[in-house]
Amino acid sequence: GQQLNQSPQSMFIQEGEDVSMNCTSSSIFNTWLWYKQEPGEGPVLLIALYKAGELTSNGRLTAQFGITRKDSFLNISASIPSDVGIYFCGWYGNNRLAFGKGNQVVVIP
Amino acid sequence: EAGVVQSPRYKIIEKKQPVAFWCNPISGHNTLYWYLQNLGQGPELLIRYENEEAVDDSQLPKDRFSAERLKGVDSTLKIQPAELGDSAVYLCASSLRLTDQETQYFGPGTRLLVL
Fold first, then answer.
1. Which residues of chain A does B106 touch, with a Cβ-Cβ cutoff of 8 Å?
2. pLDDT, tens digit (0-9, with 9 covering 90-100), for A19-74
3. Measuring CA to CA, which residue among A69, A88, A76 is closest to residue A24?
4. Which of A2, A88, B12, B41 counts the most CB atoms within 10 A of its CB?
């Protein structure tokens, strides 16, 4: 089966710092998605990537679809307290949206 | 525009009791999903509806779980009887249709605690 690794599992960062997280897979994917889930809420789509090598930004967020189609990273620049949450990578397989285990980000003011 | 609505937001029950969750998707969205999210994990698909038809229910534990989407709009997910291991967040999501370029919008979830 597909194996997906999402790292690091949790991060404690100072406000204003940049933070990066990535997902790697044993399989090739055609789509990489990055979601954010805040406490008590459902996941919200941040960025969707559809082409190998694609680099996409959404405000202070930047994500890239790896050339090998087996990995993706998400970068948050100049973190602020509201960046707190769990960031999930997601992908489509067998007509299903599947998620990694998530990266928990804590921003220290 | 209203998002996906779920109720209740929280539910505490004793094991062996039944429980039901309700979801109202975004207006016009044909595809509705129920996901299970255990603590420290990402959501996992339980069932997907295209209009009123359940087109992917292979991951739904059918011995105790059931779902319906009458008239292709609202949906309910039921557990009977509930077990301790069912404690989790149950998320509903909807999209216009199923494609990998169609965004799924999630509701806030129902947090279930089985005692």
1. 42-44
2. 999 999 988 888 899 999 999 999 999 999 999 999 999 999 999 999 999 999 99
3. A69
4. A88
